[in-house]
Task: structure prediction
Amino acid sequence: MGNAALVLQGHVWGNSMRRLQGLKIAALMLCGVLLVLLFSRFAVQGIFLPIRVIGASMAETFWGPHYTICCKNCQFCFVVDATTVPPQRFTNCPNCGSQNEHKANERVIAGDRLLVDQMSYQFRDPCRWETILFRSTDPPIAHCLKRVVGLPNENVSIADGDIWIDEERLKKDWSTIDSLALVVHDARYLSQQPRSPPRWRPQHDQTQWKKNAQGNQGFEYFPLTQSTDQVAPIDWVVYENVDFHHGRLRVTNQITDNYAYNQTLSRKLYWTDDLILSANIQCFGSGSLFFQVGACRLQIDCSQGLGILQASGREVATFHCKTKKLRAPVRIEVASVDRQFFFVIDGEAIFSCDLEAQPAQPIAHATKVSTEPAGSSGELLDARLAVGSHSLRVTVDDFLVRRDIYYTPDIQGIRASRAGDYHLGKEEFFVLGDNSPISLDSRRNMDEAIVRRADVLGRVWRWR
Result:
């Protein structure tokens, strides 16, 4: 009898433990489900229910519905807005200008999926250059996507393609410039049409620059002598832009804010000097390497390990440069953006300079080279982008030309554009779209175009 009671008691105890464990597991599962729901609702949206971009105002950081087209001539792939139909059923390649047939049944690619961080702004305000999701009252849209450029209590205006804060030009750091830059021409994608004008060429017939054997718009420079002759000329390879506007090819020294994504948009184009020149470069021996970007000229003196920056013919800065890096193939980027200059090697900003903050000085350090190459007339003429050598053996290829976003003073189709400064209140943010010509943003001359802190929903990332 005693043994039977013990067995029964043990059986009851075991069942109780199993029920308790089952309840614990169910409770843990319920907590897990609640945590996932809370995380999805309050921390990150877009994981379970997709949030997609449906407009074109933030291209090309965030794509709306679009077509991806690979040019049949140069194989360069580009994106075109699918919310409007290209005229004449053709699209123009921004890289070579060729017309590509646009078929009526072309597959539309859905807009980018987004992840929305709703927690960060519970503890801090949005930072400049962050992309945010917010509510709009005019037009009444529950979810709008733009980039923050103006912060509370600042005076904001748009002029000369740039943003001005408290009457000073807003200057982006290199990582922001690099992330927002738009491709003008990529020399890796060569036109197969024999009549296409070359983008890169030696400036003069009597030159030591020769095309490389790979045929990828690369060049090699072999100096006649490894001299330091003070009157030896700079030998230049120059970039000539080709304007494809209105279906015509025109060689020009100017670069505009034309943009392939807006294929159907007829608008005023603006010239820009906010340019970035990139190339793979390797140097041998002694001498100097030169870069021209807009009005800026950079000389890298490989014999002294010295960089000398000139702007409009006046020296503005010098810096020490580890020219040994140039003995191996490196990716060099030279940029003049927001009245700043950047010299970048393999993604690392080696030197930067605020051109508006540097008093110009007479040239003291640069090698005084002749402006008259033998057998030619003129110096660099009107070239906005160029690479040159002075008594230095150089190989250069994979040229890439990019430009900064040009913020247009008005919005296509909107007459009431904001003129002059706008003073932001303590809870207000000035926002702009990356696709400036068509973006409905804070440039509109109405109170509803300014984003209030209470309408900010979260920070946004792309999840393609």
Remarks:
- The longest strand covers residues 140-150.
- Residues 90 and 101 are 5 Å apart (CA to CA).
- Residues 1-8, 370-378 have pLDDT under 50 and may be disordered.
- The first helix runs from residue 2 to 43.
